[in-house]
Amino acid sequence: MPPRFDERNLTLDLAVADLLDAQLRRNLGFANRGGYERLWLGQAIHSRYQERALADDPAYRREVPVSLELEHRGWRVRIDGRIDGLRGSAEGVRVVEEIKSVRRGGQLSAAAREIYERQALIYAWMLHRGGEERVEAELVLIEIGTEEVEREPLEIDFQALEALVKKRLNSLLYAFESGRAAAAERRAAAARLRFPYPELRRGQRRIMDGVAAALEARGHLLVEAPTGIGKTVAALLPALRHALEAEKRVFVLTAKTLQQEMATAVLETLNPDGAFHSLRLRAKAKMCANDEVLCHEEFCPYARDYYLKLHRSRVVQRLLGRAGTLLPDEIYAAARGEEVCPFEVSLELSSQVQFVVCDYNYAFDPYVSLSDFGQDGDLDDVILVIDEIHNLVGRGRGYYSPHLSARQAEEAAAALAAGGTPLHYRTGALCHRLAALVSDSVRRGLEEAGGGARAAEAPQPEDDLWALRPDFDEAFVDYIEHQRETSTYRAEDPFVGLYFDFLRYLNVLLVATGEAFSHCVEVVEGDPRLQVLCKDPSRFLGAVINRAHSVVGLSATLSPPEFYRDLLGFDRERTSVLSLPSPFPEENRRLVIDDSVATTWRQREENYQPIADRLAALVEGVPGNCLALFPSYRFLDEVARRLRVRGRRVIVQTRDSSDRARVETLEALRSPLAGDVLLLAVAGGVFAEGVDYPGQMLRAVAVVGPCLPAVTLEQALLKAYYQERFERGFEYAFVVPGMTRVVQAAGRLIRSADDTGVIALLDRRFLASPYREHLPEHWLPPEGPEALVGDPGEAARGFFSGHAPGSAARLTDSG
Length: 815
Fold this sequence. Notes:
Distance between the termini: 40 Å
Number of helices: 27
Helix content: 40-55%
Radius of gyration: 29 Å
Strand order of the largest sheet: 11-10-12-9-13-18-8-19
């Protein structure tokens, strides 16, 4: 948490780390983000030490929150921190413990020692100033591997510490006052912000006004508006203006890389004179300059002497000296050129720019999120703009739905066997124990469920899993040290991956309580697995959302709004909903429902060929590219095998389609030299959401069926949970996600006032409840969906005979 200055009330909120000198703070930050801490090694060692200390002394306290308030130069200063350990000596002295792990035969570097000594002494000073008469401090150094403990008492001069703290406070206040000039420049930039296009589309003014009102009131806003209306620019303009005026930061969160590219392009459009900085964050694996992908100076030259090289090279300052948007490729090149970690440099930049574009994970995944979004982070100066927010329900459930695989444990054991040392054999035996525990638990759970089930709700062997934790911690410490000593570390190590997954599973078990969670066993392609299923992530997502100044959620499909509001954890009192119709003329599109085919599970086999025939007829009536979307890869494959299309290139999305294949497919659709293309893809995939097909790039979209999720144990449990909570079990578990995919897919077609085309929905269920209730209102004529029934091929031929390219009408919003 950065220092919090409230100039109006003259209050300053700090963390203990903020009282360290700037250079020391950087070193502390890297130690917490990288190295063994990143690998949770420190967590394992510290936890075992603290457990033993508690067993020996019931009065011992660990992870002790401490705070202190004081006056300084007219400011009311509050300092918060957390002491590793606090014990009492035989003489009645309170002893502050700063616990650190050191590798075998190694010592803390001079810089690291200064960091931890200073931090321990500040904690002791806080306790003393808060009324404790007799306080001491010590470093507790634990050797990795042997876990031998060395205590180093620290000399304390409380007067000198007080002077040091006041000197640091003076420095912080000076920096704050110096930053006022930059803040004034940003406020001036806010006044210059203008809508970047000549005209507003119908509905954009309402979005801008709604976002501005929500930000002013510290409220949240959910915006449901059709694809192509220009939601992103209409939301970002007032968000940027408010952020620049009020010294807030904006995080634009997306679910897909393509959406990040689009959001970045909008920010660049809004910032033609480079008045502010925006940054796009890329995933750590793609920013790693070291093939081993291990964040420790013993293994990675880009981590070695990181802050010394960062300070000397001034690479962060040089990047910030460039106006406008900071992109991953240029950050990577600049950092790699100075042999400093590109990912860490991007994180450094993220705390110094005003606007960040990144994946949902950086805000909501508890194992990936930026430090600002941690449990204790203060988000009062943060505005979140979340694109395609309907996707966050599933993503949020996934963060808290881990599984533990017997096959993964056996594969780790097999890989260890190749090591050939007693350490490898011991560690492999431990993996076999975990695999056996998982397999036995799954077998018992399925037997109790009966009926040859492949998945069932069943109790977890929690006590047995936790009993394995100390052995895994010890094995992991020894294994990493062995690799360091023998230089045998390899990327994607099976045992390291298993260890992390095991810890994550245990950590989720700690919070997986109540009706929002189910515990399951299953066999997936012969692999026995334990699974925790999160059915409702609102507790965790809401903990982030409702700490933010404001959240603006954007989507073409937020119906029913209360479903998304409640499952995303939005505070009802702070949340409003804005729903807008399509801004484009109805005559620009032809919507047809083909009720001659059916796609239910029982009817699919007999309908594969009729669907293929109807698609072929549709495509032959369309002068341009077509997109056909299916509920699953299997369904797609069955129709593709039967499809016969003349004079058109057919591209089929596969399960293993790479990023390169995606780019090549989009290039084929853009290129007139490739000829007309029919793209067969899955609904909900990369070609169905978050991708633009501008102009005449796409002329027709066919969606085969309501695209309901497959009937699995997970969906059955969700159905039961939603029935209990909302009394709409089938609708919320199956129809809402399915029809969301349908609407998102159809939205690829009409994205501007110049776009024209045909939308074909193939399945008679679109005419029945509850599916018809989830068709967008602006799609439907007054007579209802029955008036849309027809033959897709005939509809396409009739539509395009009267619509030459470029003949569409234009609608604008004058304000």
